[in-house]
Amino acid sequence: MGKNQPQQRTEWISASDVGRTVFCPHSVALKYQGAKPTKQAVLARQQGELKHEALNRQARQDKRCYLASYLYGVDDPRTNVLRKFRDDAILKWPGGALLVRLYYRLSPLAIHLSQSSPRITGILRFLVDRLVCWCSRRGNQS
What we know:
mainly alpha; 2 domains; 7 helices; CFI_box_CTERM_dom
């Protein structure tokens, strides 16, 4: 090798370690020097990973349910029944994802119309109440 040739690395740095370097460069340096983490550090990392995993699971859950959220509230049990039905049934049907996308396109219009008319709100509530009952019965049969 000549003087101007860069030295070849035989050890690659993982993408995870690159990410960890942003958070704590000292820990990555210690790792590559061969230092072993303490039991307390291992436990703290495991607890952090569990919390991070729980946060990722929560973020993956789709909390949208426009009409039910408008009629009942975001965390109302009836709203959750409809979300569960969407996730466990509709999205598994052929064309289910398309149906859900169509619903998300049309429901803001239904809410807008409902805000200007108590009669439309009553009709929506009646229909969604029936759907909640149907989904609840269907869920109890599984």
